[in-house]
Each structure stands twice: as structure tokens, then as C-alpha cells.
């Protein structure tokens, strides 16, 4: 596999849909240190990789950095040509359907050995919950799709 910081090979495999997901994830979770793995022998298929530096301030995120940036757009600057409009629609629907209970169900899966407190996780859940509809709106505006 090859690593890249740009989203290329959009016409290969299902990358037009995968790239839409990458753009949504990057904005929603405040992407940074972008490292995408590309399966060179798998029709240049994209895989997401190394989310250790997602969220404001990367691996050193705090409740303060989350709250300071909860409503700040953080879009990945990339060429939008060829992005799957249907995938954007599906992502918008999914982002708008996110509930506190669904986020809580995922956050409780974080191992107790990780150095985060319940308060940190509660704040992270709030951050993601608040950003989800805003990211959905930005995707709609960016790609001109209607849901």
C-alpha cells in the first residue's frame, strides 16, 4: 500500500464514494495529519488511516480545544470533481440521523486503559453531535445536492 495526503484515483474502484466519506469524516472529526492508504494492487482503493491526530489539537485534544472549535468549519481542501452525489446524499442523511444515544454507544467502547475521562468522552460526544448537522449542511452546499 502507498500513503498519500491527496485524494487521487477518484475514477478507480469506489473511490468517488470513498472520497465523499473522507471529506465528511475530515470535517466532522477535525481531521489532521492526513494519511490515506491506497491499495495499489486493489484497483487503487482508498482506506482511511491514522486517526490519532483527528480532533482539534490532535492527540493532545482537550475539552477546551473541542469546545473552542465545535462550530468552526474544517473542510478538506481538495478537488471535488467526480465525487459521488449519491454518496454525499447518504452521508448527509447519516449525519443528520446521529443521536446522543448512538454516540454514547460508540464512546463507551473506548478501552478503559485509554487516558480519557468520562468528562472528556462526554465533551467529545457533544462535539460530534453538534458538528454532525453542520457538516451535513456544508456537504450539501459544497456539492449542490438536494436531500
Structural category is mainly alpha
- State Rg: 16 Å
Strand order, largest beta sheet: 1-2-3
Number of helices: 5
| Coarse morphology | globular
Quaternary organisation: single chain
In total, how many domains does the architecture comprise? 1
β-strand percent reads 5-15%
Instruction: Find the count of extended strands (DSSP E, 2+ residues).
Output: 3
Beginning-to-end CA distance, first to last residue: 35 Å
Quick gist of this model?
The chain has 5 helices and 3 strands. It has helices at residues 15-28, 63-69, 85-96, 100-107, 118-143; strands at 2-4, 36-39, 45-47. It is globular and about 40 Å long.
List keywords for this structure.
147 residues; three-stranded antiparallel beta sheet; 3 strands; mainly alpha
